[in-house]
């Protein structure tokens, strides 16, 4: 059994506080506004967003973060103009072509979570290669959510489970939170301790809906292309001040309630 086959919050105790997040997830938002403020095309906002991603991937291990999950393209982003969708599709392709050898050398395991349907066969090949090449790495885990939606992922998991039941491979009563979590695209990663969203927006936008159950949320007033180590440090400082109770009560309250 791996460490993450346990339910997300099993083993955590209310008194452990929020010392350091093992897993940070980021909604990389604000590329369009960043470009607009400079009178630039949105595509340049997205390429500046890739640079911010690279800075964050470098900074995270220095801050003792072991898992980083970033939202690169949502199942709803297909409704953007075709030219912008094409530009967004080109980003991971370029990123893998230029950066995968270095990521591999640095011990980064890369996983791309999300539906493969709709992606070009070239991008699927690059994704498969990047995952296979880095699958034995364990120093740092980078999950890229691409063509990902929390609702889509939950729907896909339910469909797979229903198919297994229909085929007699398992029974409805086999389903519990642990089994369900293992059917999601994030299976194998611990749940995010902290979800960060820059750009001033305060919503999850269909990101990690199941996994976010006990994540702390931090919203920051910076556009993603300007994001750097200092902003990540500030998010960690806010996280450290949180009181994580996982539905229980703080240890010093137990006596008070008798
Ligand atoms: C949302 O900002 C951002 C996106 C839809 C794309 C985010 C992608 C990246 C930062 C790069 C991904 C790189 C890889 C390698 C996958 P927005 O465009 O909605 O900004 P706005 O709200 O200001 O318009």
Could you please describe the fold and organization of this structure?
The structure is a single chain. The chain contains eight helices and six strands, in the order βααβαβαβααββαα. It is of the alpha/beta class and 258 residues long. It has a domain of 179 residues: Undecaprenyl pyrophosphate synthetase, CATH 3.40.1180.10. The protein has a six-stranded parallel beta sheet, sandwiched between helices. α4 links the parallel β3 and β4. It is globular. Bound molecules: farnesyl diphosphate. Farnesyl diphosphate binds next to α1, α2, α3 and β4.
> What is the terminal separation in angstroms?
37 Å
Strand arrangement in the largest pleated sheet: 3-4-2-1-5-6
Helix/strand-derived class? alpha/beta
The name of the CATH architecture of the domain at 23-149 and 191-242 is 3-Layer(aba) Sandwich
User: Overall pLDDT, averaged?
Assistant: 92
Shape: globular
**Which CATH top level class of the domain at 23-149 and 191-242 fits?**
Alpha Beta
Q: How much β-strand is present in the residues?
A: 5-15%
The CATH topology label of the domain at 23-149 and 191-242 is Undecaprenyl pyrophosphate synthetase
Low-pLDDT runs? 1-16
CATH superfamily of the domain at 23-149 and 191-242: Decaprenyl diphosphate synthase-like
Largest sheet: 6 strands, parallel
* Helical residue percent band: 40-55%
CA radius of gyration: 19 Å
SS field, number of helical segments: 8
The sequence of SSEs as H and E is EHHEHEHEHHEEHH
What bound compounds does this protein have?
Answer: farnesyl diphosphate
| Number of distinct beta strands | 6
